[in-house]
Amino acid sequence: MIGDITDGIRRGLRGVGEVFAEPTLRLGVTGLSRAGKTVFITSLVANLLERGRMPGLRAAATGAIQAAYLQPQPDDTVPRFDYETHLAAMTGPDPHWPDSTRAVSELRLSLRLRPSGLLGGMRGPRVLHLDIVDYPGEWLLDLGLLDLDFASWSRGALERARAREEAAGFNAALAGLDPAAPWDERAAQTVAAAFAAYLARAREAGFSDCTPGRFLLPGDLAGSPVLTFAPLPPGPYGRRTIGAEFARRFEAYKREVVRPFFRDHFARIDRQVVLMDVLGAIHAGPRAVEDMRGAMAGILGAFRPGRNAFLSEILRGKRVERILFAATKADHIHHGQHDRLTAIVEAMMAEARARADYAGAETRAMSLAALRATTEDRVAHGDATLDMVRGTLLEDGRRAAFHPGDLPEDPRVLLAPAQAGGDRWLDGDYAVMRFAPQPARIGQGDGPPHIRLDRAAEFLIGDRLL
């Protein structure tokens, strides 16, 4: 309790300091594996520094942004987002995708803005600091664990494991474990390692809900007791048993890992973008789509949406004002299908968005590509013409034209079999290819090529730039 009071006072003093400092907007960027968080942040920053490709951002189109420049971030204990290295990887002579997010990082971009309003001519330029916070979506999913005890978490985790073939090894290891047996460190490490391996395979197969997230991205916690547990069948378990110790470690994970992340990073976010590899989930099948729908609803449940107020900032912390759900890799399909992709996102998030809208947060769904890796083409196919995308295949470097299949006009064609627990799509499969970034000709004053990144920026930060 004393620690919570101290943390509250610290946050309150920080809020008072921000009132008298230059205004700051904290943008959280998260998503699930391979959704493209690193690419999104790198391209967003590059296109705010050089705004020639940002006509959909009103402040860029009207010249309200006079200058943009990088500055040291305010949080000295958080690693800096390695913007320069990632940009060189994406746009260099041998372009390749940068390394993915594995921990929290931060970058400050400062924008010098032309004064506006009736008294604009009497004031000098103002500065807005945009603090971009990058963190793994797997960690955000962990916030849902705070409302669960070990027994209830185990029930849900075991139910998911029984339905996934990727869990065969873990299920076998669990069958050979007696949770009521006296504590055995080697047995605990064996079943915990099998559980972590299952989560990694499930994520690779396209599933989204793979909590606890630190089992996938352990960092300096690798091998620690706080990551050495697994879900177990119902107890009761006696003292000093495997079951009792796993339950204790689950509570320690919430206390020592999840709560500090929420307090130190997530609770300070003003605007949020949640990136989703929807095309990858569709390719993986109905269960992956339903799993993503549930995971994204769980993510939004972690937010406390609503408009900021001075007292709430001082006493209770900030509330997220705007949330963007973005389907990435829109360049992997022809632009004629982008509206269908966006409609699928809207349908997947209908329940979660309704909760946020009701609470006061403004939400939006969008399909985008932070770095365009393909060009569009039309190819004759018998008596018909197919809309294609053409790019460099990531696997072998070949140039290829690709038609992934048409997304349905009605999202329910996908969501109904997903919610019914189907194993495959009734009307055929939806293919997906992985493309490498293309060498790009970036002119003076331009950032990297993209699809709708300017519109995403307008929704997320545009109101604070005019």
Unreliable segments (pLDDT under 50, ≥5 consecutive)?
A: 16-20, 305-315
String of helices and strands: HEHHEHEEHHHHHEHHHEHHEEEEHEH
Question: Could you say which overall geometry the principal axes of the C-alpha atoms support?
Answer: globular
CATH topology (level 3) name of the largest domain? Rossmann fold
How far apart lie the N and C ends?
43 Å
* Total number of beta strands: 11
Global mean pLDDT = 86
User: Looking at this structure, what is the CATH superfamily of the largest domain?
Assistant: P-loop containing nucleotide triphosphate hydrolases
Can you characterise this structure?
This is YcjX family protein. InterPro entries: YcjX-like. It comes from Palleronia sediminis. The protein folds into two domains: 2-135 and 265-373 and 440-464, Rossmann fold, CATH 3.40.50.300; 149-256, no CATH class. 39% of the residues lie in helices and 16% in strands. It contains 16 helices and eleven strands. It has helices at residues 2-20, 37-49, 58-61, 83-91, 137-141, 150-162, 168-175, 185-204, 242-264, 278-284, 286-301, 310-315, 338-348, 350-359, 412-419, 453-461, and strands spanning 24-31, 65-71, 105-113, 126-134, 271-276, 322-327, 362-367, 375-381, 384-393, 399-402, 435-436. A hairpin with a 5-residue loop joins strand 9 (384-393) and strand 10. Residues 16-20 and 305-315 have low confidence and may be disordered.
